[in-house]
Amino acid sequence: MSTLNKPSELREAISSLRPFFVRASWFSICSCLLVLAPSGYMLEVYERVVNSRSHITLAMLTLVVLGAYVLMEILEWARAEILLEASAKLDNRLRNRVFGAIFEANLKRIPGGSVQPLNDFRVVREFLYSPPLLALMEAPVSLVFLGLVFAMSPVLGWSAVVGSLLQVLIGWLNEKNTQPPLVAANTSAFAAQQYADGSLRNAQVIESMGMLRNIHRRWMGKQREFLNLQATASDQAGIYQAATKFLQTTMGSLLLGLGAWLLLHNQLNGGAGMMIIGSILGARVLAPLVQIVTQWRTVVNVRDAWQRLDKLLAIVPMAPPAMALPQPQGILQVDSLVAGAPNGGPAIIKNVAFGLVPGDVLAVVGPSASGKTTLARLLVGLWPAMGGKVRLDGADMFSWDKKELGPHIGYLPQGVELLEGTLAENIARFGELDEVKIKAAAQAVGLHDFILSLPQGYDSPVGRDGAMLSGGQRQRVALARAIYDEPVLVILDEPNSSLDEEGDAALASAILDLKSRGTTFVVMTHRTSVLAVANKMLVLRDGITQAFGPRDEVLAALKQANEKSVAKPGQNGK
Question: Is the pTM of this model over 0.85?
Answer without folding.
Answer: no
